[in-house]
Amino acid sequence: MESNAIWSTTIRPGGKWSGTIGRGKLIRFTALEAGANVAIQLYHANDLAERYNMPDSLKAQYTARYTRGNVLMSDNGRVLASFVEDSLGWHDPISGYSYREATDAKYGSTNYQAERNEWLRSGEENFAVELVRNGLRPRDMMPVVNLFSKVAVDATGAMRYDVDHCPAGATVTLRTEMDTLLVLSNTPNPLDPRAEYPSVPIQIEVLQAAPVDAADYCLNFRGENRRAFENTREYYTLLGV
Amino acid sequence: MSVMREAAVQTREQSEAVVNEVILAGDGWMHVLEPGQVLRIVDMEGNQAADTLFYDADNPEDHYSAVATIAAQANIYLTTGSVLRAESGKPLVEIIADTCGRHDTVGGSCSAQSNTVRYAHEKLHMHNCRDTFMLQLAKQGDERYTKRDLAPNVNFFMNVPVSEDGGLTFADGISSPGVYVEMQAIARTMVLISNCPQLNNPCNAYNPTPVRVLIWNE
Questions:
Q1: Which residue of A has its CA nearest to B68?
Q2: Do A54 and B152 touch (CB under 8 A)?
Q3: Where are the alpha helices (DSSP H) in A179-222?
Q4: Which of B61, B106, B164 sits opposite A138 (nearest CB)?
């Protein structure tokens, strides 16, 4: 598997990353230990005002969780990326990311001066840095997808994080359907009840994807997904590529 | 719940409101709430959806955050006691009365583009909340409000149940004529409403109707 990757990296606990990934690539995320949570945001690399839209994606697919077959739609009704492989069956789109204040309150106050690079990072600050690096602002923060996390909702609306959801070695693979700016923060899910900063290393590999054919699972998953793929195709047709 | 509803009913006189306007279905409304002011949104004919966004009026790039709001209360539905938060986590308004029972914040707003995905490419021409939001931002004449600031919104009176196994549906409304929700501004807050014109799903019983907005100074 490793030999097929055109690029790979390991993200430390509390780490962050951003980068532009062209369309037609696979992004394989692997939890190197149990209990991973990676918050991701996606923007259309050629028009950063177009980005992953949580409600549009959820209501089109009648779901409050992501798994193989689901797609991440932009606010322009296009597919930014598809879930083409998933060993877990549930990735969380509704719980957001961790804040500095909550991180200090939950795991104890840390700072760089005292702990150097072992200080406990927050999603809030990780995203702020990576957004500004890419010419964006905190205004561009939108609901994230928390890969590897399961947060179920009961009949009263109460949200519950499943501590045992993600084993070591769990994988999920996204396929980019548009040129995508991926911004991520490897920080704890805000609803994770564990008292010790629950963040583990993850591996990211980028591989070349096979072309999307007529039998593609994500394309055929729902009529809604097919129409979003058609909107994406229309964008590239008009662009002439 | 019923005790809370009775306690919440009609504690303010319409005649004392400083703002009292009707927003027709398909129209938008944008207004600043000063700290302490109370906004009531009335579902006049029932089963309507009032798509609503909030901004820190002193720092508009700090927009409403659905996920910060629901994660902080560990519950996806909004009702009396819910504090609606900005992306920074800052509390903007608190719901202080609610005769509906619960409101949605994961369903977002309809758009021309999402209508093509959800229903058919031929739906592109239909009026939608995203267009109303963008028209309001354009008319505001304040360059601090841009398309990038259109975060996922609250849908007052809308019913979007999520099941234990992760399913999500758009159910018939749980609202009825005269039902209302009241919120008090904690910070100076810009409110942006699109009174939903959607004709393709039961969020408003396929019949978009007016809502009334009232503001009291306290």
A1: A96
A2: yes
A3: none
A4: B61
Mean pLDDT, all residues of chain B? 94
pLDDT at B81: 98
At B191 the pLDDT is 98
Cross-strand pairs, A73: A79
- CA-based nearest residue in chain A for residue B76: A157
- Residues from chain A contacting residue B109 (CB–CB below 8 Å): 55
Regarding an ipTM greater than 0.85, the answer is: yes
- The nearest CA of chain A is from the CA of B3 a distance in Å of 18
- Structural domain spans, chain A: 2-239
**pLDDT for the residue B203:** 76
The beta-carbon neighbor of B164 closest among A59, A153, A190 is A153
> Is the Cβ pair B67, A94 closer than 8 Å?
yes
Q: How many domains does chain B have?
A: 1
Q: Å from A97 to nearest chain B CA?
A: 8
- Tell if the CB–CB gap between B168 and A64 is shorter than 8 Å: yes
What is the tens place of the pLDDT at every residue in B83-95?
Answer: 999 999 999 999 9
Question: CB–CB of A230 and B121 under 8 A?
Answer: yes
Residue of chain B whose alpha carbon sits nearest to that of A50: B148
pLDDT digits (tens, 9 = 90+) for B94-126: 999 999 999 999 999 999 999 999 999 999 999
**Chain B hits for A142, Cβ within 8 Å:** 151-152
Given an 8 Å threshold on Cβ–Cβ distance, is B117 in contact with A60?
yes
Question: Is A130 strand, coil or helix?
Answer: helix
* Contact (CB<8Å) A153/B118: no
| CB atoms B74 and A159 under 8 Å | yes
pTM score, whole prediction: 0.96
Paired sense of beta strands A25-31 and A202-208, if any = antiparallel
Burial A23-58 (b: 16+ CB within 10 A, else e): bebbbbbbbeebbbbbbbbbbbbeeeebbbbbbbbb
**Which range marks the domain in which residue B212 is found?**
2-216
- CA–CA dist A143, A39 (Å, integer): 9
Residue B173, pLDDT score: 75
Give the mean model confidence (pLDDT) for residues B124-136: 98
Q: Nearest to residue A83, comparing CAs of A182, A146, A172, A145? A: A172
Mean pLDDT of chain A: 97
Q: What is the pLDDT of residue B204?
A: 79
Burial class (CB in 10 A: 0-12, 13-18, 19+), A148: buried
What does chain B come to in residues?
218
